[in-house]
Design a protein that fits this description.
single chain; 76 residues; mainly beta; two-stranded antiparallel sheet; 8 strands; globular
């Protein structure tokens, strides 16, 4: 997931990876969703992206805003 955030999450973009026959993800074969939210001029931060299987998303919100977001990944 690419995240544009500073004091709160402004926008995010999902990264999809091909599933290999052994069940792992292939970071060399990926595509991204359109951005959701309003982008700033800051470079996005990549969460995950090294081939871990994502099993969930966690976040903290306040007053209708997403303050923090993270990925829950499958362990070894």
């Amino acid at each position: 997931m690419n995240v544009d955030a500073q004091d709160r999450v402004h926008a995010l973009q999902l990264v999809f990876m091909r599933l290999k026959p052994d069940g792992s993800l292939d970071p060399s074969d990926q595509y991204t969703s359109p951005w959701n939210g309003v982008r700033s001029n800051r470079p996005p931060e990549l969460l995950g992206g090294t081939g871990e299987s994502v099993v969930g998303i966690c976040y903290r919100g306040h007053a209708g805003m997403v303050i923090a977001i993270g990925l829950v990944v499958r362990g070894p």
